[in-house]
Amino acid sequence: MAAVTRRAFLAGPAIGAAAALIAPIEAATPPAKMQGPGVYRYRLGSYQITALYDGTWFLPIERDFVRNADRAEVNAALGRAFLPPNVLPVSFTALLVNTGKKLVLIDTGTAGQVADTAGVMLDNLTAAGAKPADVDTILISHFHPDHIDGLKSKDNAKVFPNAEILVPQGEWAFWMDDGNMARADAKSPVHRYFLNARRIFGDIATEVRPFRPGTQVAPGIEAVAAFGHTPGHTAFAIHSGAQSMLAMSDTVREPWLFVRHPGWQPRYDMDGPLAAKTRTRMLERAAAERMLVEAYHFPFPACGHIVKDGRGYALAPVMWAPL
Amino acid sequence: MAAVTRRAFLAGPAIGAAAALIAPIEAATPPAKMQGPGVYRYRLGSYQITALYDGTWFLPIERDFVRNADRAEVNAALGRAFLPPNVLPVSFTALLVNTGKKLVLIDTGTAGQVADTAGVMLDNLTAAGAKPADVDTILISHFHPDHIDGLKSKDNAKVFPNAEILVPQGEWAFWMDDGNMARADAKSPVHRYFLNARRIFGDIATEVRPFRPGTQVAPGIEAVAAFGHTPGHTAFAIHSGAQSMLAMSDTVREPWLFVRHPGWQPRYDMDGPLAAKTRTRMLERAAAERMLVEAYHFPFPACGHIVKDGRGYALAPVMWAPL
User: Fold this and answer.
1) What structural domains and CATH numbers belong to chain A?
2) pTM for this structure?
């Protein structure tokens, strides 16, 4: 910069910052310790939707993470998304729907019980101006821990004191069945999911309300069967006025892998072929109808549109905009 | 939902929410009036970078907005991005660089002086934990109002009391020259830009420091000539440790139009062919070197990577992640 400052091209005086560069003082503002709030609002008809970021789990990819693609293919797909190899960034975003009459939360975040780098959904709920006690209804998509753990704190206290909790009956029937648990390999993650479902729901079982796919589970919100990821896995269609969107839950997970390659079967899909069929059908419909879609593991703010191209599908994220 | 509740599949009681749906009460949390904070942090070497959203201007697209593409082509490109026709959403995001020693702001937002839907950069600076008085250095890319208006409030008060203000000498030489102003059509936006530059810089001219491209303008930040958009338009290369990024300023504007079609010449590019050449060269280099790039008009958080494909280029936005 000094070279410039020696010249007198311009009306202003020469740059005098060189001395400051040589003997700098600390910036008055220290670097922040945390990411900025993850709160993104958008309108759907008369409803206000709020994406609430919970964090990201950096999951080491094991050899068989995608059952029908080898690790080199998975790493190549990550590389095309400018992500490092061998680690899958699993993002978590819960969806808050304010119908004007009801405050509805779809899935609950991890409450810090899945990874150290996730668990800020309640902080973001606060940043969004709401309290856990304000939530009227909680809709659960399925019983994997990252979707239900936010119902309880680490010491098993209820987090949302006033919320009715609605769950897919297929999930309740599968995960709360002791025979199914007994049949699961005791060393498998699936076995842990059975135990975790009991930890989360055991002492509040009488407060939990089951629902069937195809039914309205909250004002303007319809449960949509999306089986395969888990036996009762459910998506949610949200309608207000002339507008609709589809919260796809885990039907479609990380976009660089499973939007691009809907036939890929991640180990987390309990019924891989059925999940892939459900995923492909949903992506095809979303692309054909230019639907607004959301998914729990899409990068925050976790909503956008699906584009079909020659190689598969791609996510076009929404553009951040004023409310 | 009632159909589900009549069944007794599960341990929990039947759904009893139907009555609540018939006689709803207001949700305890009213819909928010404003978008959530637009503050996104990332690391570059030892530096902390913060994207600060200022808002979005919804600009009606006039017939000749892109000099060498007709409106139908422009609308088709917007449609492919799931955006409505005839309106260009012009996003504004300023970049805060905390080097640990210096707090550097690159461009300043609009301070509400360009559109009613923009002007929240200072709110987001506050949300990011910094005050205007904390900013040590302001780097200006060029003198279009949306980049410099944030230096002053609507009543012409200085906003950043302690900041040195560094500007491209080519911009100062062009816009502060009364002969150039006299040659501009008095009814054109360009003429207004000349007047606005005098409003912003006139009474602080002795505090403004010019710089030349190719020089270091702040610790680790190098000014990069990117002429065409305006005569002295400048990008900034930021280096810390082994990492680098390129703040492209207005070399590349809205990605669905000008990343996809770098040869398109928006009316805002004062020298259309030169700007297109500069843009194409920069995109080509960014894609080839897989550089992290940022641009003032990219959708918040305004950073990502450039992918080259058969049809041109595309922006791959960064994935929102914990700090």
Assistant:
1) 36-317 (3.60.15.10)
2) 0.91
